[in-house]
Fold:
Amino acid sequence: MENQATENRPEQPVEGPAEQPPGRRRARLQGRLVLAAVAGCALLGTALMLLPAQRPAAHAPAPAPGAQALTAVAAGVPAALPDLAVLIGERESHLRRHPEDAQSWAVLGTAYVEQGRRTAETAFYPKADTALRRSLKVRGNAEALGGLAALANARRDFRAARAWGEAARKLEPKRWTTYPALIDAYTGLGDYKAADRALERLLELRSGPAVMARAAAVYRDRGRREDAAAQLADAAARAQAPAERAAYLERAGQLAWERGEREDALRHFQAAVRVDPDQRAAQAGQGRVLAALGRTTEALSAYRIALAKQPLPQYALELGELYESLGLQQAARVQYDLLRARVRSAAASGADEELVLGQFEADHGDPESAVRRLRAEWRRQPGIPVADALGWALHRAGEDKEALGYARIATDKVHGGGVRSALYTYHLAMIERELEQTAPARRHLQEALRINPWFSPLRARSAWEALAALGEVPDEELPSMDAKGVTPRPYR
Structure:
């Protein structure tokens, strides 16, 4: 009974430690919760440490250098030199294991072309030729044909470039990267209508920075400088990769230089080098502009930097003439010797540098040799630069009547390229002066100096002297309209 009574009795506190106040019990409970939370955090942290590291989703990892160069090469845009070297190494390694991969052979060959063009190491060109032809042997494809067109343009073999480009277009008419190579080939051959048609087709197939830059080159050759400048500005603003943007900035600088806008040209050239230190064309551009600004020491340094990494014969000629304008004949001869050596090296690799060699021989060597070389060049590829160079070489060799015809082709805004060149106009003026065509000579000298008063450290000075020797335009009444309302042609 006692036990039953006990079981039915209301529950009593357990004997033991004295009962704690409610506040203290809450504090102990909170303490236990804190310890549990700390332990949980520790376990969670350990688990997270064991998970693979991940970057925030908002920042995707940058593509590897080889992938970046592959994207550029496939799109026909400039690639960074270090990335190109990585891509070439990757393709070479891959092809040792998979020698029947036609696409990789085409990529490798096109990368060799770009590497040779950017470094002026023409030894890359035979390697490119071998790789691209191997790609075609494995399987006929437009990528390899387009690469061969680009290679021929880099070698200044515009007839071959046209043939390869047209074969690529026939195989894949909608492959847009074929058309820039065709535009270069047609321009080099003096076929400006075909170049215009190729640009129209390119604009139908593609838009973007690379196409804008290509359009700018055509507009520049047609004398549409404002249109060309606008296209280049947009291309540089929209370019994604630094090497591509630097290339467009360099072209914008060259366009500004041709217009005699020295400060604007220098700004573009400097920006290009900041974006891509391997942009050697911009370094040479700085040399031209700095010389025109009277900053001779800086100009010489800029040219030396450009030549160290991209020893183009054209840069050696420009630096040699700058030395000559300063009275440093021995230093000039060193550059002229370098020019000859680079031309020989290019010829050994299948590249044609006869144009620049002819330009050099006309002014600093043997004009008769220049005429022979440039006549042969004109037969191969009658473009505007060759017409100008041949006309000038004939003048220097004493054949002014024949020279005048070529000089007019080079400056013909209707049937020729239409490019506004201070040098071409100066050449025309000096030939006219020798033929005693005083009024046209005066007018063209003024035009040359209006286009760019600093176009050459040697010839700009000669232009000013020749203009002064011709004297002012005689004071004459303006021609009046005849009874039929037709203004008679002014006396020339």
